[in-house]
Write a structure and sequence with these properties.
Blueprint lengths: L1 H22 L4 H21 L9 H24 L3 H6 L20 H16 L2 H29 L3 H7 L9 H9 L4 H9 L2 H7 L3 H9 L6 H20 L2 H6 L8 H7 L9 H4 L13 E6 L7 E6 L1 H17 L15 E5 L6 H8 L6 E3 L2 H4 L4 H15 L3 E5 H12 L3 H9 L3 H17 L5 H4 L4 E5 L3 H12 L4 E6 L3 E6 L6 E3 L4 E7 H9 L16 E9 L8 E11 L11 E7 L3 E4 L3 E4 H10 L4 E10 L3 E9 L7 H15 L1 H10 L4 E5 L4 H11 L16 H23 L1
Parallel strand pairs: 3-4, 3-5, 5-6, 6-7, 17-18
Antiparallel strand pairs: 1-2, 7-8, 8-9, 9-13, 10-11, 11-12, 12-13, 14-15, 16-17
């Protein structure tokens, strides 16, 4: 009986292995597994070879050996081959990914079958009477322990485990898991193998029509409680901190510290900006990164320092993005939870920026094998952005259009071009050579004429899905609805973080994504204070600590990305702590503006203070000072407020034209903005004489320090603009009257 107790002890030690993984204690993980397994194997062998034996026929011995061979193969495959061996049993922490393929598509704990069959085989071979007592005890203990793991442990270890529990039975295969297992194990011919390599697990679910599983896999994050959301965040953060501690960039950014939790990270590591990463990322130092990237993407940088910000993207990150692309497609086409209306083969116009921009990266994981992308992805990557949109537009007229995924400003530009006169009408006439385009245009023109308005996209294409992206999405929301016949589903992201949050089928607030970035939030007052005083470190909140209000968003990359406590410069608003209407227990957000020294215009370009300043200087105008901000009207406006030294000799329109041309010389993306959308966002207001002097006097009288005597060049407040435009003019008028008197 002592050996039975010893084997039981081995089982208990083996099952503490999972808690050791969660605690991430170095070297103890493989040691625990080896000690527990050794005790169990020793006990099993000793009990099997015990002196007390039952009479066993010869045929059962041969059957036992056959069964032992098969059961050992089953046990070894399920525990050591079906699972990634190094990450599961050797490396610190938990495995990279939840395994749901192979035997784990049949049941959640196939190892129980292997162990049970080994016990049966050994009894058939040896006839040990002690084994006849020990085997039921050990098998029952194994089942009890995996039940405890399943209920209390694995949900903390693996993202999506609750969904896996719903999809796959624990121990007994059912009519749902058995076909999935058979399909996964079935050999394929060469053509099928080639196609399989192209198609991911998520795409396979869509192609096979397994829509319940697909919804849970892609959209299940909206069903997380805030507690579940934070558990995923913390678990992935611990994995990321381990990667950071082993690379040069991580050691540099974290100042040599080794934080072990979100709390330690916030306490030990300062907030960062791109300047902290530029020496590594601009040179694309892959050797210094937490994990080797599969590709690099970029966005416009600070023109005076570096023209682009380069950001690495890991293979694991791409894997996590693909289900989110499906989520966007499903949310934008459904009217209720769990509804998937798309069936494959729909015509899709992809009007995002091309690689190496972040939205171009999304084309690499877009399921183009399931949809008819206009133009095809391979061909589109060889075209300029404008040519790609024009080609997609022409193909859409001929073949039809079901899905449109585009930047907000591009969506509006397509609508405006469709309804223009003159040159655009001549280009439409050229398309009439296409019979299907002719019929589609004719129907659209009849609809528009009957409605007494210009031709619009909604007259031509009854879309199933419309997805937009851009900092100015809320500006164009109603116009897009008018043009395209439905509201666009918006999502928020950036090059450094990819997808941060997305709307659902109510088209209201956005829901945060739990598994791409770890989130922190700087209250707006703290953010402003830190930008006024560079030495001040603002406090942050986690997502389960925020209240409705405005925050600057801070992210730490997950899955081997480079950024640690990175200030995105995005001011977002937490509109509610949950979506009551759709029962989503995650805080809802909307994007407000950028709060750093750059101004985003229509998602095409970010203009820095130095670029705008350089453009003003290059005009040769004599001026006292200036300030500029983006203002939201029918279209985004870059509003420059400038005080000239010689008022009256030049008009505001002339200043606007001069500065506009100089910005085009300094910023290529700004030029492309005008070329494609026709948008000239610059507007100029000439400030009264002594406006900035009067502002400085007001600030000095209020006790302001020297650094705050002038308004900021980028993003002045409403109160500041009101003072410069109105109060300063009144003060100047009163001063002139006194002089005349």
């Amino acid at each position: 009986m002592a050996y039975i107790a010893l084997g039981t002890l081995g089982f208990l030690i083996i099952h503490t292995f999972d808690f050791i993984s969660l605690k991430r204690i170095p070297f103890l993980k493989p040691a625990t597994w080896l000690v527990g397994s050794s005790l169990l194997v020793y006990s099993v062998v000793t009990v099997s070879l015990g002196p007390d034996r039952l009479a066993i026929p010869v045929w059962s011995i041969w059957l036992g050996w056959l069964l032992l061979s098969a059961s050992l193969l089953l046990l070894v495959y399920s525990l050591f081959l079906n699972l990634p061996f190094i990450r599961t049993y050797i490396a610190r922490g938990v495995g990279d990914k939840l395994v749901k393929t192979g035997l784990y598509a049949l049941v959640r704990h196939p190892g129980v079958y292997g162990f049970t069959l080994v016990m049966l085989a050994l009894f058939l071979i040896t006839g040990s009477s002690l084994l006849l007592v020990a085997a039921p005890i050990w098998i029952a203990l194994d089942i009890l322990l995996v039940m405890a793991q399943d209920r209390f442990v694995f949900g903390r270890m693996f993202s999506g485990y609750e969904q896996y529990q719903r999809e796959t039975p624990m121990l007994i295969p059912n009519g749902r898991s058995l076909p999935g297992f058979i399909n996964g194990m079935r050999p394929k011919n060469q053509g099928a193998k080639k196609e399989e390599r192209k198609m991911s697990e998520v795409s396979e679910l869509f192609r096979e029509g397994r829509y319940d599983e697909l919804w849970q896999r892609c959209c299940g994050f909206i069903d997380l409680s805030i507690g579940d959301f934070m558990r995923i965040q913390r678990r992935l953060l611990l994995e990321q901190l381990e990667l950071l501690s082993r690379c040069e960039l991580g050691q540099r950014v974290m100042n040599g510290t080794r934080p072990r939790s979100a709390e330690e990270l916030r306490e030990l590591v300062p907030l960062t900006t791109y300047t902290d990463y530029a020496p590594y990322l601009l040179k694309r130092r892959m050797d210094a990164l937490p994990r080797k990237p599969i590709l690099w993407q970029c966005t416009s940088g600070k023109s005076s320092e570096y023209p682009y910000r380069w950001v690495p993207v890991t293979a694991r990150t791409l894997d996590e993005i693909e289900p989110l692309i499906f989520a966007l497609l499903f949310f934008s086409s459904c009217t209720k939870r769990g509804e998937i209306k798309l069936r494959g083969g729909e015509k899709a116009l992809y009007g995002m920026a091309p690689p190496p921009y972040a939205t171009g990266t999304m084309t690499r994981v877009f399921p183009h094998e399931l949809f008819d992308v206009l133009p095809p992805v391979e061909a589109s990557e060889e075209m300029s952005f404008e040519d790609r949109i024009r080609s997609g537009f022409r193909m859409g007229l001929s073949k039809g259009l079901d899905i449109c995924i585009a930047m907000s400003s591009v969506t509006v530009a397509i609508g405006e071009r469709l309804g223009r006169n003159g040159k655009q009408r001549r280009s439409i006439r050229a398309l009439l050579r296409e019979p299907r385009a002719t019929l589609r245009l004719a129907r659209g023109l009849i609809k528009s004429k009957l409605a007494g308005r210009p031709l619009m996209p909604r007259d031509i294409w009854p879309l199933k899905s419309l997805i937009t992206f851009g900092m100015d999405g809320s500006v164009y929301r109603e116009k897009i609805k008018e043009m395209w016949g439905r509201y666009p589903l918006d999502f928020h992201g950036c090059t450094e973080a990819l997808i941060l949050a997305m709307q659902t089928w109510d088209y209201q607030g956005m829901t945060f994504i739990p598994n791409l970035n770890f989130f922190e939030f700087i209250p707006e007052e703290e953010s402003i204070k830190s930008r006024q005083d560079a030495t001040y470190q603002p406090s942050t909140l986690l997502l389960d600590e925020v209240k409705p209000g405005n925050y600057e968003l801070v992210i730490t990359s997950l899955h081997g990305g480079p950024f640690v406590r990175y200030r995105t410069g995005h001011l977002i608003k937490i509109t509610a702590l949950r979506n009551e209407q759709l029962d989503i227990d995650i805080p809802q957000m909307t994007f407000l503006t950028r709060i750093d020294d750059q101004i985003d215009i229509a998602g095409f370009t970010r203009l820095s203070e130095k670029v705008i300043w350089g453009a003003i200087e290059n005009t040769g105008l004599q001026y006292e000072d200036w300030t500029v901000r983006k203002e939201v009207r029918e279209k985004p406006v870059l509003h420059l407020y400038i005080e000239l030294k010689e008022n009256g000799h030049v008009t505001a329109d002339q200043v606007s034209a001069m500065v506009h041309e100089e910005i085009k010389k300094l910023d290529t993306s700004y030029t492309e903005l005008e070329a494609f959308t026709g948008l000239k966002p610059l507007e100029v207001t000439l400030l009264p004489h002594n406006a900035f002097t009067t502002y400085a006097l007001k600030q000095r009288a209020a006790g302001a320090e020297l650094a705050h005597l002038k308004p900021p060049h980028i993003g002045p407040s409403d109160a500041t603009i009101d003072f410069l435009v109105n109060t300063a003019r009144k003060v100047t008028a009163r001063t002139e009257k006194r002089v005349e008197a």
